[in-house]
Amino acid sequence: QVQLVESGGGLVEAGASLRLSCAASGGTFSDYALGWFRQAPGKEREFVAAFTQSGRTTFYADSVKGRFTLSRDNDKNTVYLQMSSLKPEDTAVYYCAASRELYGMGVDEYDYWGQGTQVTVSS
């Protein structure tokens, strides 16, 4: 069973950057598609970005495309989400997730979740 631990959230001003990290343990990193989701107060959890299981392809939500970038360090079993040009509407709890599927953009396609890290962007 995979355990996921996110870090790197915080309070920033609009236009700033943050890098979130997701450290995985308890499983083989390359066996899972890895994704980021976010949930703002009163809203449903939504897809942000994901790697396919192979790690060779990435998917992004339209709302973050061009501003957020995924990367990974297989030696450290860690996935990163570099967030730039942050906007107040990016404020949410950000979750890392792992899926046994080849890839996925739906919440229901992911099997393991981290505890989340808060990102707050002030205007």
What topology emerges from the helices and strands here?
Layout: E1 3-7, E2 10-13, E3 18-25, E4 33-39, E5 46-51, E6 58-60, E7 68-73, E8 78-83, E9 92-99, E10 112-113, E11 117-122
Parallel strand pairs: 2-11
Antiparallel strand pairs: 1-3, 3-8, 4-5, 4-9, 5-6, 7-8, 9-10, 9-11
Percent of residues in beta strands?
Answer: over 45%
Structural class based on helices, strands and sheet pairing: mainly beta
Radius of gyration: 13 Å
Shape: globular
Helix segment tally: 0
Instruction: Kindly report the oligomeric state of this protein.
Output: single chain
Task: Give a count of the beta strands, DSSP E runs of length 2 or more.
Answer: 11
- Average pLDDT reading: 95
SSE topology string: EEEEEEEEEEE
Largest sheet: 7 strands, mixed
Distance between the termini: 40 Å
What fraction, in percent, of the residue positions are helical? under 10%
Low-confidence stretches: none
What can be said about this structure in brief?
With 123 residues, the protein is an all-beta fold. Helix content is 0%, strand content 50%. The mean pLDDT is 95.
Explained architecture:
By secondary structure, the protein is mainly β. It is built from no helices and 11 strands. Strands 2, 4, 5, 6, 9, 10 and 11 form a 7-stranded mixed sheet that branches. A 4-stranded antiparallel sheet has the order 1-3-8-7, with no helix packed on it. Strand 7 and strand 8 form a beta hairpin. The radius of gyration is 13 Å and the shape is globular. The mean pLDDT is about 95.
